[in-house]
Amino acid sequence: MDASSHLSVVLDLPPAQWHRAAHHGLPLSDFLSHVLVFLHAHIAANAENSLAVFGAFPGSSTLLYSSADPVPEHLPIHPNSYPPFAALDHAVNRRIHAHLDALDDSSADPSALIAAITKALCYVNRLSLSPAANTNPSAERDPSVLPDPRLLVLSVSPDLATSYIPIMNSVFSAQKLKVTIDVCQVFGPDTVFLQQAAHLTGGSYIHLERRDALLQYLIMAFLPSPAIRNVIAVPTQDKVDFRAACFCHKNIVDVGFVCSVCLSIFCQPVPVCSTCRTKFPIKTLQRLNQSRPPLPSTPNGPGATTPRSNPGTPRIGPGGTNGTAVARSVSTSATTAASGELPHSSTIGLGTPNGNGNVGRSLSMGTPVTNTSPNGTAR
């Protein structure tokens, strides 16, 4: 428990979302003051603790502060202030305001949250390499160089379906580096992908209920290092949403069709996988399509989007594909496969059940006609 710990913090800073959050009792200035006090506590907990702060802005991400950077010579420091605290506050505030002032008001780019997470993982990987590994990239990671690395994401942005693959790649990298990803959803709805990232890396996910108590949430839930969390009670998720995004339309789907070769997910049966170019039996595709009921008419017209009140509410995606229609087709096809009518199909899960979590179901599109795996080997 006396060992040092590294903390990387990703601040989600899209101006539009923070403008909405200010109307709900949490302006950006108050948020930064709470976060800076939390970062001070991390530095004060152990003299050898290291810290890195990354900012995610619309269309770009940057490193705001690193404890490895030298303290500026002409830093305005109050006589009663601790120099590392003053250097942290000065660097974070100055660089955030500089990036926000440089943003174009007409820009509609989403927040580069995934890019900031990727940079934080790359930073951890660079710090975790031993001196021998700096000259030999293939050298093994030395755990004694950087024990208990963790990443804290403070998010205010909703899920983007296009970020599913990048964030899953980040999760796999974090697992390889043994990095714990903690997530605090400060404002907005729950994020499906960040929930999965926290669950898969052994971190904590918290949706902020009282925004005026942000500092208390941070201190009690995210300040202890992973080693200390083994002996204390940390917040856990009652349920985890394991839904994925389809590779064809980038929509979050309750039920998807999975390629049996590369495991790409599609919202409807496809004759050829767009990822690995594997062809599937025509008869299986015909049976799957025939088992799908006709799309119900909606007052909004084809391709409209209906609001989701709960995970079971149907959603209309691009091209008028209805989530309930897909779910029914998969359920019917799975029943048919169980009776032996579809010998090449099987039902598999998109995620691992966790308590009362919602687990997405998927139907494999069968044995491929041609062995066209990405590496050229027979499957």
The quaternary structure here is single chain
Largest sheet: 6 strands, mixed
Helix residue percentage: 25-40%
Average pLDDT, all residues? 74
Number of strands: 12
Radius of gyration: 24 Å
Low-confidence stretches: 132-139, 298-362, 369-379
Q: What general outline do the C-alpha atoms trace?
A: elongated
User: What is the string of helix and strand elements?
Assistant: EHHEEHHHEHEHEHHEEEEHHEE
Q: Gap between N and C termini, in Å?
A: 48 Å
What's the helix count?
11
Beta-strand portion reads 5-15%
Structural class: alpha/beta
Strand order of the largest sheet: 3-2-1-4-5-6
Could you characterize what this model shows?
The chain is of the alpha/beta class. It is 34% helix and 14% strand. It is built from 11 helices and 12 strands. The strands form 3 sheets. The chain has a 6-stranded mixed beta sheet, sandwiched between helices. The chain has a 4-stranded mixed beta sheet with strand order 10-9-12-11, covered by helices on one side. A hairpin with a 2-residue loop joins strand 2 (50-57) and strand 3 (60-66). Helix 2 (28-45) packs parallel to helix 8 (214-222). The longest helix has 20 residues, at 83-102. It is elongated and about 80 Å long. 35% of the residues are buried. The model is unreliable at 132-139, 298-362 and 369-379 (pLDDT under 50).
